Amino acid sequence: MVNLKRHNIESFLALSIAIVALVIALKSPRPTAEPKDTFNAEPSAVAVQGYTTTANINLRKPNYHQTGWNTHLDWNSDTIDGLLQNFQSGGSISPLYVDEFIYHTGDVDTYLQFMPDAFKLYVGGVQQVAGTLPLLSLGSAAADVDVVILGNLKNALTYDWGLGQFQIAVPTTIGDGGTTDYANYSATGQKTMFGGARVVNSIAVDNADLGKGASAASEVIVGNYTAWEFAINDDAVFTFHMPHDWEAGTDLIVNIEWQIDVAAGEEIAWRIVYEATPPNGTEAIGGAGTTVNSGDIVVPGTERFLTQTALIIANADLAADDQVGVTLLRVAIAGGTNPSPQKPGVTDIHIEYTANKLGEAI
Predict the structure, then answer these.
(1) 199-355: what fold?
(2) pTM of whole model > 0.85?
């Protein structure tokens, strides 16, 4: 009985000494020299999953790339004995917690740095990516870093740091993906617009040209405006060249802006006669032309209200590079009452057209 009690006492003392030694060891300072392939494990930090092993640990190793000790996982070709067994064959680590840095082994200037609600990725000591809410930054303001966004096209979008400009690989489209409303850029960089991407441009007719005709209109001044008053059968003749940005297959709209010093109840009518001729030595000018009538127009209810009348030059009569000659006439109305002695005065004529490109390709 005495021997058994003594044996138990000795066992208890040995266990106590072992526990004290373990506590002393755990409280010992960290080594000043970098340990080789040694990691300490603490619970509830990293889940390491292999084929059969799952554990929560915190992997710590001295970080000699920075001053002091920092927590990071040193990724090398060997797995961590026991805990990372079979990791390279399909295991996983989730979640992984680090204090600030994750370094590439043997490459001290390639690393990922974490900060509160932010991170930075460095390659070769140069910042490549930075994230801080609500922004994600690519490249570097202080170093020559070109940013390339890849897609179906190689280097689809590139920001050239040295040139300070974006470069888009062509051919490509910008808009709805090439369905309805978009701009297409050809392999040579030429821009063509479709649908809602197209724009309306205009050709201004020189105001002085409104006084040129076989039976010319009379010039008058109305406040701050110059107007040309047309009696019935007076005319004005002008010419213009088809613009290089015109979209083939679309009409031209001749806008006649006019006013008259008489109230509603009376009517006027306009007519244009036009011809389009290519300047390539294949057609003569001076033909009968095509006639377009406005029909009878009731004058506005208030004197000198500026009014616009639109007449169409059909696209079927037009071709790129054509020279277009137009005669504007005031004609007799079909019925109703002509104003007299008042005459409508034209202040402006401009021709609107649809543009789908910047100009004619070289």
Answers:
(1) Jelly Rolls (2.60.120)
(2) no
